[in-house]
Amino acid sequence: MSKEFTSLYPNYDVLKKWDTPSWNDITRAVIEKRLNEVPRRRFFTERQWVTLVAVCDRVMPQPDRSDPVPIAPWIDTRVYERQGTGTHYASLPPQQECWRHGMDAIEAEAQHRHRRPFDKLDPVEQDLILHAIEKNEVGSSAWDGLPSQNFFRHILLRAIVEVYYAHPAAWSEIGFGGPASPRGYVRLPENRRDPWEAEEHAAVAAQRLAAT
After folding, report:
1. Which among 71, 108, 184, 205 could bridge 142 via Cys, Cβ 3.0 to 4.6 Å?
2. Distance (Å, rounded) from C-alpha 9 to C-alpha 89?
3. Does 204 score more than 80 pLDDT?
4. Within 13 A of 148's CA, how many CA atoms are on the CB side?
5. Bond before 182 cis per omega within 30 degrees
6. What share of the chain in percent tops pLDDT 70?
7. Contact indicator for 34, 166 with CB cutoff of 8 Å
């Protein structure tokens, strides 16, 4: 689902801010929990969980990480604890029902097309299924009552991206300094950078520019 990514900040580590004025004790406590207290599965069935993990691995692949950002566990916690965004789409069922239906339907779509579980398909087959779901071009009757495109765009994709970019490893990848507490950010206009923010790697930036 995604192309190869090269960070503009290959030598940047946001955790080096740990004992600097950028972060206070509250910020450090939140980040420490995010790093060291990955929640256990409580909501999804084992089959739904395996499917979710496989989907996360295709939407946000992390082949270059020896310790990948955990995505599925935090989605499971969100759904189990009924943590919402404040938005409910009229075309979609309530949150918990929506997630169960969605995971079951993705699995059913894999069985419909290939007679194999989603997590046992090769990456190309998985990507083709996810693209079909995103385009609302599904073939399994398991999607009845759940618009696949709306589920993919508004629920599944949004959750995966939000969880991934809430992790310090992703912050380092994009040069983000983390929470603005207590120091804050001052130089907000385009192409301005506070002295404690990450600086783009010139060689990587040049390679990207040449490729466009």
Report:
1. 108
2. 37
3. no
4. 23
5. yes
6. 92
7. yes
Q: Which two tokens stand for residue 123?
A: 């990456």
Report how far residue 10's alpha carbon sits from residue 38's, in angstroms, rounded to the nearest whole number: 25
Kindly state the tokens that stand for 26: 């509250």
Q: Could you give the dihedral angle defined by the CA atoms of residues 174, 179, 183 and 188, in that order, rounded to the nearest 10 degrees?
A: 50
The β-bridge partners of 182 are: 23
Q: Is the pLDDT of residue 195 over 90?
A: no
Chain-centre distance for alpha carbon 131: 17
Look at residue 23 and give its three-state secondary structure: strand
Mean pLDDT of 146-157: 98
Alpha-carbon distances of 127 from 47, 59, 207, rounded to whole Å: 19, 8, 27
* Average pLDDT over the chain, rounded to an integer: 92
For residue 1, the model assigns a pLDDT of 47
Low-confidence winner among 11-20, 109-118, 161-170, 193-202 (lowest mean pLDDT): 193-202
Minimal CA–CA distance to 105: which of 156, 71, 162?
A: 156
